[in-house]
Design brief:
Blueprint: H1 2-28, H2 35-38, E1 41-44, E2 47-53, H3 57-70, H4 75-88, H5 90-113, H6 118-131, H7 135-140, H8 142-147, H9 149-165, H10 177-185, H11 189-205, H12 214-229, H13 232-241, H14 245-259, H15 264-279, H16 281-290, H17 292-307, H18 317-331, H19 338-373, E3 380-383, H20 415-423, E4 430-433, H21 434-438, E5 456-460, E6 470-474, H22 487-490, H23 494-497, E7 500-503, E8 506-511, E9 514-520, E10 529-534
Parallel strand pairs: 3-4
Antiparallel strand pairs: 1-2, 5-9, 6-7, 6-10, 8-9
Length: 535
Amino acid sequence: MWLKNIKENKSCYYILLIVGIAFLILNILTPEYLDDYLYKYTFINGIADKDHPILTLKDIYVSQLDHYFTFNGRVIIHSFVQLFTGIIGKNLFNFVNAIIFTSFIALSVKYTINRLNKPLILLTTLLVLLCFPAFNDTCLWMTGSIGYLWTGLFTIIYLYIFKNLQKKEITSSSYLLVLGSIPLGWTHEGTVFPLALSLIVYCYQNREITKSAAFPFAIGFIIGAFLCAFSPATFGRASGSGLTLLGIVNKILSGFVLLSKLKLIYIAIAGLIWMAYKEGKQKILYFLKDNLLICGGIFFSMGIVFLSGFHSSRTAFGTELFSFLLIIKMLANYNCKKNIYTIVSMILCLLYGGIVYCSVLNYKEYQRILQQIKEPSTCIITTKDSHYGIIENWIRTPLVSSNSEYFFAYSPSSWENQDIATTYHKDSLIFLPEEFIENISSDKFDTFSTTPTLPFYAKRLSDYQKISKVVYQLKETDFASLPFYIRPFAHNLGRYTLTEVKTDKFAVININGTPYLLIGKNKMIDHRVKDIIYE
């Protein structure tokens, strides 16, 4: 029996090694992106100061102290970000992140069945690749993966240790575990705060836990999560945003939009329904009780989905992480036929092959952009509109001005462009689509003109002038054409009732001696724009 276990463990390690190498290749092919440049500099008075690059651990300490009071409470996570972006570098990050990813897969399985299991490793890897929210942002992008993937691993480490500590009696030295679990809780509030709330409920319902070493370990995690979620910066943003009925309705509607982008929670629900059908009511109730902590994490993290007001699927990373763990727990209860795992392996290979192919194309485009940036006299960088179809979720393109919530690449004053320019020792940089540059002399730019693929409206100006105000003139909304679930609220939402909208997403740039006014599109109202007024 022990020989069989040794053989099984050996094959598991080989699979994990292959997974790690495969993920390392994807990391190498993934470029730096937006916040990776921001965090290269020390935060001073709420601003990443380009005169103070991160060079030492002291710089990180000063930066994160300011960050805690002005941005958010993710001090530990963003300390790692600044360590890699400012001091250690992207190349070493690629190796560390591959180890983190492999550890995440291995520990997810071990947390479920207390040992490694070859079929479950393959299924877990497939689930992560196919279903994790915004895989390119949460697992490959340097700032994003430290914020989400690493938080996921730290969360599973906590759950694994917590489960084992419940079997040990509490002693006076057990309270040292508080210090050990605070850092595990002080990571990303979107994941750890719902788990902290679930822990409070769990400990209240299981009073016997106060006699185990797991109790101080829970206290430390809860403290860390609250320090993260309720930083002075968080309170500052909350008090500044205000709380209105219209704002709450907007956030709830955004929550429903976000729900449509999720996958794992629906797989988990379907699995529970199947289990109830096959195993009966008692079995499902026992399963839910046995996994109360994870189920609580799903429940409380849904609050973030509906109250955050964000559309990005990575906002619901906590919900998807806990759903993911619940799915693995369900899979561990069933023995699938051997050919199922052969099929899973084939799907993984085919999917990975497509991802690598597109990643290579993306990497070549990144190198083309870098080559332009490194030219001393070049400040206008041309970009190509790259689309990777169904592989898009696994590719972190170097510049995505049309899809980013903040980044308008044509403006030399945007903080992203300023940070990238400073990193490469240039005074300024702007990024313009190759399609626009090729048609720059066209008569169509005598008036505001664009194409569906351009992220902005463009107009040639007769002379250089300072533009202080840009306003979209809008057509009236056809309320009858709106989705049925929006109609009851639409008449109270400015998005649908306003006839004009002011925007600050504009810039006047000089191309070959000719000034152009570029105005970023607003996707929500783009179809209603009938005129643009500027002064």
